[in-house]
Amino acid sequence: MSLSRRLAMIAGLAVSALPIFAPPASAQTPPVRLRGTIAGLEGSILSVVTREGPTVAITLPDGLQPGALKRLSLDGIGPDSFIATVAAPDAEGMLTAIYVQVLPDNLRATAQLHSDWDLAPGTSMTNAIVSSVVSARTGRKLSMTYRGTPIDVVVPETVPVIMGIPASRADLVPGAKVFVVTQKTETGYLAQRIVVGKDGVNPPQ
To answer: Which domain holds residue 47?
Structure first.
């Protein structure tokens, strides 16, 4: 795995509020995360042109509800906010956010973590509670704590701040950007979580 509540699928609003970058708790083997553009949907089979180039077929289980994203303001993040960040170290070694997602409070006890992530080489993922927010040279510095461990991340003013919202299978249209957490099976890919671009807000690719 490059410089990635481990999450299970649940229904309704709670599903769409989960982090877009965490693996399912119930997985017996490591999840396969796919990012790309929808080529088509026929029945329960979603065809996705992945960012790496190949087109893959993903089976959507009955009852799997897609999620989408909406933009928020960085001003809404303060002490005691529970957030997820994907970040990479800058030239001085300081973690700098690529994007930030506001998480629901009911995940505080189970979803705190800091781990490598695969959005880009050198990226990491942190789900943590904000302890303080101060001005930084290029934005704001968030001091956070995950399971008692402190970590600082600088969030530039231009970094997207997002939260999960509900979507439906009607949003899985050709040309839409998607992020899909899947389980590799003997017959292909089985979706466990899917986030689709909607109203101009796309999952990070």
So the answer is: 13-68+164-196
